[in-house]
Design brief:
Largest sheet: 4 strands, antiparallel
Strand content: 35-45%
Number of strands: 13
InterPro entries: DUF7685, DUF7686, DUF7713
Distance between the termini: 31 Å
Number of domains: 3
Radius of gyration: 19 Å
Structural class: alpha+beta
Low-confidence stretches: none
Helix content: 10-25%
Shape: globular
Pfam families: DUF7685, DUF7686, DUF7713
Number of helices: 3
Order of helices and strands: EEEEHEEEEHEEEEEH
Length: about 190
């Protein structure tokens, strides 16, 4: 657990911001509440705390997913983020949108909720048992997900969050082997798109 250097609140690694106010001064690790209060004061943003911080959505299989909702105020606008915590240190689905300062927060939340519903509306991984072995492959030769750092390794090895589940680089590679000899197209997109 990290502790906010401004208010002393305990926080997980999620929800902490490293802030450097002046060049040459040491950075400070602060909670999102303190960061948002600081940025709101600096940028003149009002009513920055008025929103529900939890929402539950069903996926295409009828399974409930509970999301923690947060927002960070930046000089270029507001970033809304929803995170599904499966376990204390394990994250499932995550969605983000960007809100311009002029946009109504309720409209931004509607866009965020629509993005969540769309993201939960289909699955990209197919699991089946063939001759006693579990086969994991891509449905329809398309996969969408998120790239994360795999903290099981000391180097810069990624892991992938697909359908709200973690997959190692090796597991993703094995799934791709069902398409051995085929060509592929890789597209990386910014999380608020």
């Amino acid at each position: 657990m990290e502790r906010c250097q401004w208010c002393g609140k305990d926080s997980s690694g999620y929800g902490m911001v490293v802030l450097t106010i002046k060049e040459g001064e040491p950075s400070q690790s602060i909670c999102e509440d303190c960061y948002n209060r600081y940025m709101a004061d600096m940028l003149g943003v009002e009513d920055y705390k008025d929103f529900e911080n939890e929402a539950i959505f069903k996926d295409c299989d009828g399974i409930d997913h509970c999301f923690q909702i947060g927002k960070k105020i930046h000089p270029t606008g507001i970033c809304w983020e929803t995170i599904e915590f499966i376990e204390e240190d394990k994250v499932g689905y995550s969605f983000e949108i960007h809100q311009e300062f002029e946009e109504d927060s309720n409209d931004a939340l509607k866009r965020l909720y629509e993005k969540i519903k769309k993201g939960l509306s289909q699955k990209y991984i197919k699991r089946e048992v063939f001759q006693g072995y579990e086969l994991i492959s891509f449905k329809e030769n398309l996969v969408e997900g998120r790239i994360e750092w795999d903290d099981r390794y000391d180097d810069r090895t990624p892991k992938f969050i697909i359908d709200g589940q973690e997959y190692s680089l090796e597991e993703l590679g094995r799934m791709m082997m069902s398409c051995e000899g085929w060509n592929f197209k890789l597209e990386i997109i910014e999380p608020t798109e």
